[in-house]
Design a protein that fits this description.
Blueprint (H helix, E strand, L loop, with lengths): L10 E6 L2 H17 L4 E6 L1 H6 L1 E6 L8 H6 L1 H18 L3 E5 L2 H10 L7 E4 L12 H7 L2 E4 L2 H8 L5 E3 L14 H7 L8 E5 L4 H21 L4 E5 L13 E4 L3 H7 L2 E5 L2 H9 L3 E5 L3 H10 L7 H6 L6 E3 L5 H8 L7 H15 L6 H12 L4
Parallel strand pairs: 1-2, 1-4, 2-3, 4-5, 5-6, 6-7, 8-9, 8-11, 9-10, 11-12, 12-13
Amino acid sequence: MNPQNRSDKPTFFIVAGEASGDLHGAKLISAIKNKSPKSRFVGHGGDKMTEAGLERIIHIDRLAIMGFSEVIKHLPLMFKVMNDSLVKIQELNPDRIILIDYPGFNLRLAKNCQSLKIPITYFILPQLWAWKEKRINTFRNYIDQSLSIFPFEQDWFESRGVYANYIGHPFSEIEPPKTTKKHFYSKHKLQESDTTLVLLPGSRQQEIDRHWPICWKTVERLRQQKPDLKVIIGKASGVEIPNNLEGATIEDKDIRAAMAFGTAALTASGTATLECAALDIPEVVFYKLSRISALIANKLNKSPFAAMVNLIAGREVVREFLQNDATEKNLSAALHPLLETSKERNDVLSGYEEVRRSLGVPGVYDRAAETILKRTNHG
């Protein structure tokens, strides 16, 4: 299938389609290169993967699409990306394809690559246990290696005939910020004693467009009771956030420092909810989809929770408000006790301890790299 003389310099085609995947992909590339320095990576990713050594074809900024109606609008682009990917894969003839999350695109790519007979690793598995369970057939038929980040996920896949190698969760090794709270707050012209709300409205522009109005309305409502409330906005790369919130500052370099040092967070459902748990900042979770996307999601979703923290715990550790429930009244009422010493705040922090214990031990990317290289016969 692949040239035998490439055993010391494997080539991987790798795909990530959003900011969280870019982070995971960058660390995975680095871990594989540490074990196999001549490895080559070609594919789609963001700035972090490029810095780690990816020969990038398409930037994630063009791929970060969320919701059913939103995907339909971008179908011509996605068809072109798919076609360009297949052409490049045929030209490259990689030793292995690595797919990171982003299931709407990646599972179709896996199917379309079947005739090429190239083995495929899936890292950060889609949450089939929550919705779209029928996608398990794609894993049975087209995915050579599945790397699981949750212990319950491994059991779920294996009970349906798909072997999944549990390697632990990447957030088990989140490091504390390299800066200090004093230095970080000084940069934002804040005092260490300030009560600070961190806004995490999402990593895609369409999320920002839908979430930002409710974010600033929630802050305005909170300030009726807490006029001295300070705000730091976590801004992902490639998005624009309207600067219409008085007294708020934007952090776009070290968002995790904002999480680590903030008092509480208002978080759009997604990877950031688990980052908040890892960094111990109490949060309230919210999310809004377009009306048609929400209707379809409600029919397909089997889980009682949206926030990853609650899914892992199997109970409501953090309050979550979706669609019409995500109002400034509900969000501000839920956030208020988290911004001061309270039973609600202590309950969230206690729940976080439970969640962190389930994430496994550090070394996730090294374990992923080792299993990928072994399966590729290059380690």
